[in-house]
Specification:
single chain, alpha+beta, 6-stranded mixed barrel, 5-stranded mixed beta sheet, 20 helices, 20 strands, 48% helix
């Protein structure tokens, strides 16, 4: 927007630069551009609800408290002093209070918003406002759209108003969390399912222990202990076990939180605030109490009901009720394991599919960097061009460098501008219009990135003095001139009445691997200078090895200029899939833990059943039952709850996998390969868990058992 009007009904409002969110974290052109590694964000001269701790906000820079403490050691005398930001002096006029958290962790400075329509007409702004109790999101959206349409009409833009009418207001929380809202909820659900399996395992063990103590509990009942006392006794044991486990878990979490936080992608919102604090401890206490009650109550009630019942033959035998409850626990563990393993399989398949996507360029062998020449040292456009030309020459002189290109915003880093376009030279005489993303590139950019040129030519130095030219991608050509050759066509935008198409290139995934290429146009750097260009350097060999040489070459031109985002393109591409990789890795880990716990439960219940049936098995073998028959009987007895849990788990997984629809990439929630592989995997694991106690059952010595009887 070129101007802004306060929305009636907003209690307070302020604006920050519009950004493209990628995985929950915003990318701005102003980020990380100063030697102190501080990012900046523009804010108005004053806004409600946020006060500086030392002085009022007037002009200059307002520092974030965490950056103030980190960079200046909490020195209060910094207020009123000047600091260098991108080579320019700015006065620090205040420090934010400790209670204030910036929207993004890399926002370390704010400066007053100084809009000049002649200078900032192409810069979009994100409007952030606090709604009053009388105004809802829908009303704000309506006002927002109507205001944009009015501005669109009054400023004589080309094309349809439809894009303006499509604008909507949304929750700031949703904007901040982005795709991580669903991902974090999924992780929370996975943790809950693993907890259920672990608790079911402990519940099963407690049930077995309670059954083995029925003689003791019966004696207590005979001495006058009521059922409530027996229930309390077993529940206290459950609480002690749960408390011990919770204490060990909290200790491990406190010790490992730093390492875990380091493995989480940096675009996770509020990552810097992840810590074991009072809220986490309160949650752990609540979960511990609930778990102890939920999975200790059943064994306690069974012990209270069976206490005092006469033992048969001097021994207590496992009743049918206890057996059903124990096998029910096993079936529940297997079912929950299936849900987790199916989810892990779907996410793993989705990640593999994402990794196989062609981004539209060859990332291997590319080093990218963005020098940021300060405006005080390079005030004129000619100065910036001369600096860029010198850098390009220095980079090309490095042995092993093949090509050097430049672009205003690096692929997979977001950014650029959107403009309305109109075409009227279609073969059928119709007029086409829509929104297109724009990029400024140098002549050698497409060669450096190995973006395929499908038709026409790339830019050349002669374009500097010639008419306005443009290169379009396939997505734009398909929409603007369907079925036609775009070379030689004329495209009009808000800022240029006649751009002649001289080339057609392949689509590049500019946002993320999972986001298809948008309609795009490329304009030459020689006709549209951009101060903070990204340079893309194609090298022979390992790109990582060239980082020091490239850094030294650029610093050798002017050591005052900060170098931002010096990185290899494989690393940049990998970062775009970091969220999917992290999610798949954690859910796969949870799935493996769940399956292991489930199989431990299968093994434990079967082994316990074999141990309690030693007398019966000895008699069977003594009267001539084949050992193979005993093994098959034991296997079938243990396989029944596994089969029941497997069937229930597959049905539940089929229902819950649809919740992953928005997270999966080119994988259906009911993916046949996953739903066939998971049961086979679990059946194999279950047979392995059952085979050990079944084999032990065949080795019972009848003579020893009968002699003991």
């Amino acid at each position: 927007m070129r101007s802004w009007m306060p929305c009636s009904g907003l209690a307070s409002a302020y604006m920050v630069p519009a950004t493209s969110r990628k995985g929950g974290r915003n990318q701005t052109d102003s980020g990380r551009a100063m030697p102190a590694r501080a990012a900046s964000s523009r804010a108005p001269a004053s806004h409600a609800g946020v006060q500086a701790t030392t002085v009022r906000i007037s002009s200059g820079r307002l520092a974030c408290r965490s950056f103030w403490q980190r960079r200046f050691g909490g020195d209060a005398s910094i207020v009123g002093q000047s600091v260098q930001v991108r080579g320019n002096p700015w006065q620090v006029v205040g420090v934010m209070p400790a209670t204030h958290q910036p929207l993004e962790p890399d926002w370390n400075f704010w400066r007053p918003l100084d809009l000049d329509p002649a200078r900032d007409g192409g810069n979009g702004l994100a409007v952030i406002g606090r709604l009053s109790s009388e105004v809802g999101i829908e009303q704000a959206s309506t006002f927002y759209r109507d205001t944009l349409v009015q501005l669109w009409r009054s400023q004589g833009h080309l094309g349809s108003e439809a894009p303006m009418r499509a604008m909507v207001a949304g929750s700031l929380r949703d904007w901040l969390l982005g795709p991580w809202q669903a991902r974090l909820l999924l992780l929370l659900g996975a943790v809950g399912l693993v907890l259920l399996i672990a608790c079911a395992n402990v519940g099963n063990l407690m049930l077995a222990r309670t059954v083995s103590r029925l003689d003791e509990l019966g004696l207590r009942a005979a001495l006058g202990a009521g059922r409530a006392r027996v229930v309390r006794l077993v529940l206290v044991e459950a609480v002690l076990i749960a408390t011990l486990g919770a204490g060990l878990g909290i200790g491990a979490a406190w010790a490992l939180v730093g390492a875990v936080r380091g493995s989480i992608p940096v675009d996770v919102p509020r990552l810097e605030q992840v810590a074991v604090d009072g809220r986490v401890l309160l949650y752990a206490v609540a979960v511990t109490a609930l778990s102890a009650l939920a999975f200790g109550l059943a064994p306690a009630l069974r012990g209270a009901l069976c206490a005092g019942m006469p033992a048969r033959g001097g021994r207590t035998t496992e009743g049918a009720a206890e057996s059903r409850l124990s096998r029910g626990f096993v079936a529940a563990q297997v079912a929950v394991s299936v849900i987790l393993v199916v989810g892990a399989g779907l996410l793993l398949r989705s990640f593999w599919r994402l990794q196989s996507i062609d981004p539209g360029f060859r990332a291997e062998g590319i080093v990218a960097l963005r020098p940021a020449p300060p405006s005080n040292a390079y005030p004129a456009e000619a100065d910036v061009r001369a600096y860029h030309e010198t850098i390009t020459a220095k980079l090309r002189d490095i042995p092993g460098v093949r090509e050097v290109g430049g672009i205003m915003f690096l692929p997979m880093q977001s950014g650029g501008w959107w403009t309305q376009y109109t075409v009227s030279d279609r073969a059928d005489g119709s007029i086409g219009e829509g929104l297109v993303a724009g990029r400024i590139v140098t002549d050698d950019y497409f060669a450096a990135m190995e973006v395929p040129v499908l038709a026409g030519r790339v830019f050349d130095p002669d374009d500097a003095a010639g008419p306005s030219v443009v290169i379009v991608n396939e997505a734009l050509a398909r929409i603007a001139w369907p079925g036609e050759d775009p070379i030689g066509k004329i495209l009009r935008t808000d800022s240029n009445e006649g751009l002649r198409v001289v080339g057609l290139v392949g689509d590049v995934r500019q946002e993320m691997l999972a986001t298809p290429g948008n309609p795009e146009l490329y304009v030459p750097y020689t006709q549209n200078m951009w101060r903070n260009m990204y340079f893309t350097v194609r090298v022979d060999g390992d790109a990582e090895a060239f980082l020091p040489r490239i850094r030294d070459a650029v610093r050798g031109v002017d050591a005052r200029v900060p170098i931002n985002n010096l990185v290899t393109m494989p690393h940049v591409v990998s970062d775009t899939a970091a969220g999917s990789r992290f999610l798949a890795a954690f859910v796969v880990a949870f799935g493996l833990v769940a399956m292991s716990l489930g199989m431990i439960g299968v093994y434990g219940v079967t082994a316990y059943a074999v141990a309690r049936k030693r007398r019966e098995l000895g008699i069977r073998l003594a009267i001539g039952a084949p050992r193979r028959q005993v093994m098959v009987h034991t296997l079938l007895s243990g396989a029944r709850p596994v089969a029941l849990g497997l069937a229930a788990g597959l049905l539940a997984a089929a229902a819950t996998s649809r919740l992953l629809q928005g997270i999966l990439f080119e994988i259906e929630p009911l993916d046949p390969l996953t739903f066939l592989t998971v049961p086979a995997l679990l059946v194999g694991a279950a047979l392995l868990a059952l085979w050990v106690p079944a084999r032990r059952a065949t080795r019972v010595d009848p003579a020893t058992v009968l002699r003991h009887e």
